[in-house]
């Protein structure tokens, strides 16, 4: 410890006399710049013609924030000794600057930013604490910080070509609708002219998922098609796989290359994509006192190398969206029941 004290005194002197006024931000900017550079490298494109680095990976989602935190603390420790609290929370500033930079430069969409930021905070703190402990053990841990800076690249190479684990799950939700099942059935098959305000409770829509505009059952019965239109030019079909008139309907999703125009959704959470997909959805209508019980079941897939984190997010977003949609059907059906009018396409 004795041979570290002169170094600490020199660092304090440097901080007081040799640094520019913005020196307090120097560690945060250093960590953030590293993160932004790696976000450019981990773009999913082929790097140097040899390997594809992707953001949905252990290398980026876990190790990059670890290194951001480590660089932040390393640069701060070069100025003066910091506290354990600094090791934990200082990397959050670097992460925030990095996230803000990604948003401004359109490197990342709003959905991915919301989902990834808590993970970056967590592992940024891990990297900060690890580097803080190393700095207290060694006077100049240059090799340690350089090794950490290279680790994401080494792990990315190791991940290349490896299969991505897939995980299937199902959510179920239910709501009571004060309207007959026939009214509810109509609005499930013909929810047209949907206003964003009618789905305002859905968190997924508030963070960037396009709002639905309409859905129409074009061919009733098993094998029939239900066509959907969302905002931002999103269109896709659903093939009906189960049909009991007025009681039960289920479908599977049919996406193609034109379903999601560029920019309509974050590529990492695009439905039917490599990392996330909806399998099938079903509605069951059961008459009960005062109206109808409407049940929804949604099966989905999450495929990442950190499903322990991604799957709870998917479950929350799908559950929340399902509840918003159930509320939409409830409000539409009950309003129609009160007014005594159901607006069928081409009919009154």
Task: Please explain how this structure is put together.
By secondary structure, this protein is an alpha+beta fold. It folds into two domains: 158 residues, no CATH class; 173 residues, 2-Layer Sandwich (Alpha-D-Glucose-1,6-Bisphosphate, Chain A, domain 4), CATH 3.30.530.20. β4 and β5 form a beta hairpin. α4 runs antiparallel to α5. The radius of gyration is 26 Å and the shape is elongated. The N and C termini lie far apart (86 Å). The N terminus and C terminus are likely disordered.
What are the main properties of this structure?
348 residues, alpha+beta, Alpha-D-Glucose-1,6-Bisphosphate, Chain A, domain 4, 7-stranded antiparallel β-sheet, two-stranded antiparallel ribbon, 9 helices, 9 strands, elongated
Radius of gyration: 26 Å
CATH superfamily of the largest domain: START domain
Largest sheet: 7 strands, antiparallel
- Count of individual domains: 2
Q: What is the third-level CATH name, the topology of the largest domain? A: Alpha-D-Glucose-1,6-Bisphosphate, Chain A, domain 4
Helix content: 40-55%
> Can you give the mean pLDDT?
88
Number of strands: 9
β-strand percent reads: 15-25%
Q: In terms of structural class, how would the helical and strand content be classed?
A: alpha+beta
Order of secondary-structure elements: HHEEHHHHEHHEEEEEEH
- Numbering strands along the chain, what is their spatial order in the largest sheet? 3-9-8-7-6-5-4
Q: What is the end-to-end distance?
A: 86 Å
């Amino acid at each position: 410890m004795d041979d570290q004290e002169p170094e600490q005194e020199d660092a304090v002197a440097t901080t007081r006399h040799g640094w520019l006024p913005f020196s307090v931000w120097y560690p945060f900017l250093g960590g953030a710049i590293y993160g932004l550079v790696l976000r450019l490298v981990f773009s999913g494109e082929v790097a140097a013609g040899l390997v594809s680095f992707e953001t949905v990976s252990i290398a980026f989602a876990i190790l990059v924030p670890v290194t951001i935190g480590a660089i932040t603390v390393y640069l701060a420790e070069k100025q003066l000794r910091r506290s354990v609290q600094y090791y934990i929370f200082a990397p959050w500033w670097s992460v925030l600057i990095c996230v803000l930079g990604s948003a401004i430069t359109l490197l990342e969409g709003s959905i991915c930013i919301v989902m990834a930021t808590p993970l970056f905070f967590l592992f940024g703190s891990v990297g900060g604490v690890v580097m803080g402990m190393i700095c207290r053990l060694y006077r100049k841990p240059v090799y340690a910080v350089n090794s950490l800076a290279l680790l994401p690249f080494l792990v990315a190479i190791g991940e290349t070509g490896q299969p991505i684990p897939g995980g299937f799950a199902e959510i179920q939700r239910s709501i009571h609708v004060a309207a007959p099942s026939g009214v509810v059935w109509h609005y499930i098959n013909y929810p047209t002219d949907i206003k964003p305000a009618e789905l305002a409770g859905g968190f997924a829509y508030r963070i960037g998922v396009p709002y639905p505009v309409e859905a129409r059952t074009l061919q009733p019965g098993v094998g029939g098609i239900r066509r959907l239109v969302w905002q931002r030019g999103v269109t896709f079909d659903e093939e009906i796989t189960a049909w009991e008139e007025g009681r039960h309907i289920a479908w599977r999703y049919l996406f193609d290359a034109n379903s999601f125009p560029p920019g309509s959704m974050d590529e990492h959470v695009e439905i039917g994509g490599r990392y996330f997909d909806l399998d099938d959805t079903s509605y069951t209508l059961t008459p009960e006192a005062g109206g109808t019980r409407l049940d929804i079941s949604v099966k989905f897939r999450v495929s990442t190398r950190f499903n322990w984190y991604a799957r709870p997010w998917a479950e929350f977003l799908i559950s929340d969206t399902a509840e918003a949609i159930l509320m939409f059907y409830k409000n539409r059906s009950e309003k129609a029941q009160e007014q005594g009018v159901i607006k069928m396409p081409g009919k009154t």
